[in-house]
Amino acid sequence: MLIDTHCHIDFPEYNQDRGEVISRAKDNGIEYIINIGSSLENSAASVELAKNHACVYAAVGVHPHDADRFDPDGLEKLETLARHDKVVAIGEIGLDYFKNFSKAENQKPLFKKLIGLSKDLGLPLVIHSRQAEEDILKILKEEEITRAVVHCFSGGENFLKDCLDMGFFISFTCNITYKKADTIRRAAELAPLERILLETDAPYLSPEGMRGKRNEPVNVRFVAEKIAELKMISSEEVARVTTENAKNFFKLK
Ligand code: NI
User: Strand pairing partners for 30?
Assistant: First the structure.
């Protein structure tokens, strides 16, 4: 059994066959799917999905890309959503200085507000970090955060070490299968299995051989297989440990 700890199946890419995508995952050994919020609207959709499907849990958050157009009134709405008992994390939140779709001066205060929300509710964080490692670590340290997962990990060895030292989980997507992803594979070799989570980030980042197509939760098995190969252990062992990690981290019942 595997858990896809990060995907976006509320997105319009699944409007025609969302139920089938969830069934296909369930029928192929995906025990749970955690659908991640990326805006207020997507967070509401994420909670709705979780209400309607026993195997789906939700996270609510606002992606740093959306920081410029985030209405401060949205925070209260987000909190109401976050109080639903199938909401297991605040995310994805963080900083993105690569695409810079929103200004850094708007990203940071939003990130801090949402960290505050996670503290109020006792929920862990799902972190998006892109070319923002220094600020991410600085803020998480200041806020004394220990329960966080760095999603779609693509950092170098130093960032990995800092994240592990702070007690964070490291999450890998299907991009670990890409030909040029040596840095990501190196991180997966170095990170202890006890601190690894698996995800697809679907609809994005389809595995090698399916690139450019829509991704879906069932493909999380490709991440497990690649990590097994890198660590020279069985896929079953990767599945067993990472599934237990996810259940403990997100407190899944
Ligand atoms: Ni995502």
Answer: 2
Query: Which domains occur in the chain, in start order?
Result: 2-250 (3.20.20.140)
Q: Which two tokens stand for residue 28?
A: 């192929």
| Confidence at residue 219, expressed as pLDDT on a 0 to 100 scale | 98
What is the rounded CA–CA span in Å between residue 94 and residue 107? 8
Give the tens place of pLDDT for each residue, 138-175.
Answer: 999 999 999 999 999 999 999 999 999 999 999 999 99
Query: 5 alpha carbon to ligand 1 midpoint, in Å?
Result: 10
Span from the CA of 59 to the centroid of ligand 1 (angstroms): 11
Residues 169, 193: Cα–Cα separation, whole Å: 10
Tell me how far the alpha carbon of residue 36 lies from the centroid of ligand 1, in angstroms: 7
Taking the centre of ligand 1 as the mean of its atom positions, its distance from the CA of residue 93, in whole angstroms, is 9
Output the CA 115–ligand 1 centroid distance in Å.
17
pTM (whole model) above 0.85: yes
